[in-house]
């Protein structure tokens, strides 16, 4: 299969225009997330790995722009040198897919709308994204948004492209609003809580005035107790007081241990990269979203269905679960468990044959699916960009 590797936006547009005759394209960046979504049947690969580099960084304005193939690590390193960071804590998720994590691109983060544990506080990638440049399925270069957040009329392409998985346009440049990095952090750890008590603890912490930026519940393994984690970030001078005040606010749930500084950061990196699931190299992995209050009930239903390896993030509203990669990888029982509570489930990792046969993304109601097809028609009428990556025929 041909592999096109353009090094500028005009060449990307030319490649897409040619694909309207020559056949559809699989869009990749660093090729670390090719296992996410349904397998595509394409005539060639359009790789953006040469479309790389930071094009604008204005620390005083809290704005950074980069070409879509820029490694996430390069962006984070540049921001760190300026005492800043991407607010949404983008994960690599190297436990799920093959590829060199150093090649993970910022365009893929946007295309998949990824976010780590801090999403509960700062939102997802789309909430920090303020501008995009892209090539649509007609081969037209489109710009939307800019260097400030503002309201728009018509399609908000900035938000639409985040989570479209390359099915509506080939991202060529992205612009983010960034935030200052905190001076330090602390994590309160409550031991031995049940999932219901843990979510009550997390909800109370998130509803407190102490600005919790991470809220997860990890199961106990091999006799170790379950851990309920709440993170605080800010100035060193504040941290002892805020951690003490939050612990006092949550005293009904016990007396927590406290991790400080790098020890706290390391624990949250483990959560973001799914370490609590253990080795998932031979398993299927699901990302399940629901209301935080429903998290324990959904988790209990999953266990009754035989999905026992799981943990809760985002205050209980996100459940990461792993199961055997057989049949539909438990798609039926998992989505049935959600039916009574609301939410959606995405199959993040599974063999190609399962992803080709099962619904990887949560099935959409008929009116929403019709709207999705109409949006695809508007941006990519010839179906040349990642066809079928999200839904068959789209």
UniProtKB/TrEMBL annotation:
The keyword Cell inner membrane is assigned to this record: no
GO molecular function, one term: catalytic activity
Residue ranges of coiled coil: none
Keywords: FAD, Flavoprotein
Lipoprotein recorded as keyword: no
PROSITE patterns referenced in this protein's UniProt entry, alphabetically: FAD_PCMH
InterPro entries for the chain: FAD-bd_PCMH, FAD-bd_PCMH-like_sf, FAD-bd_PCMH_sub2, FAD-linked_Oxase-like_C, Oxid_FAD_bind_N
Domain (FAD-binding PCMH-type) ranges: 1-181
The protein, known as: Glycolate oxidase FAD binding subunit
Organism per entry: Tepidamorphus gemmatus
